[in-house]
Design brief:
- This protein folds into two domains: 90 residues, Arc Repressor Mutant, subunit A (Orthogonal Bundle), CATH 1.10.10; 180 residues, Dna Topoisomerase Vi A Subunit, Chain: A, domain 2 (3-Layer(aba) Sandwich), CATH 3.40.1360.
- It is built from twelve helices and twelve strands.
- The protein is elongated and about 80 Å long.
Amino acid sequence: MKLPLHIAVKLQQAITGNIELPASSIKHVVVDKMLADGVLQKKQVGKTKAVLFVHNAAALAGYLHNIFGIPSLQRYIEKYPDKTLTRSESVAISGNSKLRGIRTFTGFLVNSFQPIAATLNGSAFILNPPDGSYVFISDWKSFIPPLTCTIIGVENAENFRQVRRLQHLFKGLTPLFVCRYPVSNDLVLWLQQIPNPYLHFGDLDFEGIYIYLSEYKQHLQKKASFFIPPNIEYMLKRYGNRELYNRQHANRTSPPVMQEDAIPGLIALLHKYKKVLEQEIFITANNLGLAE
């Protein structure tokens, strides 16, 4: 059983101020149990009005410790709303690591096909994951890539896993790849705090454009751009998916209003061939020598 924060605040007011609380202001199942167990008392002050009060503060403190694992009601009230509350702190204030939803794994995945000299927590950090592995950046607020890096957001997991097979697409760049999954605000917040340009590598379809504009462009503005391969028309004609075009076009006829110069041209090509292109094809087509 958990003690709701608003109930904890009311109890603390009753103890420190030695005041009576209107019963209507402190309704909850845990309050009913405290009344039944005798650590809270109820007094009728009118036909329809009642008040609750704490007769023995020490008894209530012991009860909160034994039943709810709360050794200090004041500290519980102070720490409970803390957005940076860790599971260990949660155990310390309540004996319960699951006191409230806490994201233990904050951060995002990164990958690279060449060594990247970055900084993490003020120390030099060489990012060079072996083929078949990635790096999870947990302390993302202290993760600083070199200014020469272009951050490339990869929408789909298979492409992110095989970035070495996509080198031909990013010649002339020093790319640091980031993954959209697991989806959270951490990645966008990090992109906002660093000066590096962001290039979004997603599916070349209506859904991919929507994801880019709604999740990245609106937050990063001019720092963000959408990656369109130079051979897009050839790839679209040869490997495009007409069924997916029809399905997406029926469900979403236009992307959000925020656009950029390259996107209307891409949309025009999608409509011209009535096809869309999923980004995984760039792994296979180049590996088999099928790309123009």
